[in-house]
Design brief:
single chain
Amino acid sequence: MITLQTAAFSLTIALLAALAWRRPAWLAGALAFAVALEISVLFYPSLGPAGKFIGEISLTKLTCLALIAAAFPRVFTDPLVRQKLSDACRQPLTVFLLAYIALGAVSFLWSADRARTIVESVRLATLFAAFLAVVLLARKDTLLLPFRILHATALLLTPLTLYEWRSGHQIWQAEQLARETVLRVNATFVDPNIFARYLVLAVAANFLLCLHAKNRTRILYFAALPILLFQLILTSSRAGVVTLVAVLLLALILLPEKKAPLWTLGCGLLGSAIIFATRSDIVARFAALLQNMDTANPVRAYLWRAAIAIFQDHPALGTGLGSFQTVFLTQYAEYRTLSDGATLSHTTVLTIAAELGAAGLFLLLLLTLSVIWTAMRLYLLGHSTYLGMFNDYRNSYYIGIGCVLWFCTVFVSSQAEGRLFEDPILWLAAAMLVILKNMETRHPYQ
């Protein structure tokens, strides 16, 4: 008997296959949409015991596999695709991403949890393959598509956000959020912090889309910003607000047209004033950031201490990719001050330090520098004069800055939630930076 989950799975496969066959370049936009549907794990059948190793089926995983299946066969039949692959493999961004994955895979040799290291290595390798697939399938006329789709998806979640806010009922993961003292909407996401990250990504996309919009359309984008910010406040995500501030500051520095960032800043300040006057519970939650960490957030405090201790004991190469939880529970359990507290690290830099040591941190630094270097090269290659760049909003530099803002969003928010290399948006942003660099230096994408 065919169940609803089996039917949903079959329909998803059919739709992705149709996209891969007829519109493969649209799959990058589909990935930006799929990331928003973490709830999709409820739509598909369980993998049983295998799920312990490869996780639950989700729309994001299926879209990544569709990208890979659509792209790599073309390497053998299309000379242009082979040229794209050759160009991409020479980019520093690609090299450092691959080096990080290689280090994680090699850490199997000394890992404290080899099974977990294998799982994490396979997951990162799959995301890297999807990253290359986006590069291979890209077309010049679809570069803005991921930004448009992510922005539209965040807005389409507004009715669901309002429902959760007004009803006090989360449609998913409600039992895990019940311990919160403040209602935190999560819409279709497993965690309100990840929902907040997605909303900040949408704000960054809005800044870019405003530059490419006509005056009348730009008004609609300006009107969308308060909606995105209102949803962000309803998540009560402190990390989301900190991330938004970081993205705003970066946008004000890098973008010549500052109307959208300044409008966002003004709406944010007005919203903050209203919340300060009407919602003492939310104010108290954010004020806790200024308190002693052991009092305000003892879980994060002991996780930080444990990660630092692991790094101090294994400074060069760490304890192996994905091994933090195992090492923490078996060798550093004395740092756990709450018996029912979290056991997974929520801070990316400390996680990398503990699992891959100084070598992993060095590769993270090189990756960050390569993102900055690529953005600078796009500016230098795009225009010979500074003022020329600011007179042409179609310049690829602006899409590159949108990718940098996305990279900043994922990186900053991952210091509170923990997903960095695990977030497909990071790989999507990196792929588009490589595409832009290839377009400027080698050949146009048709």
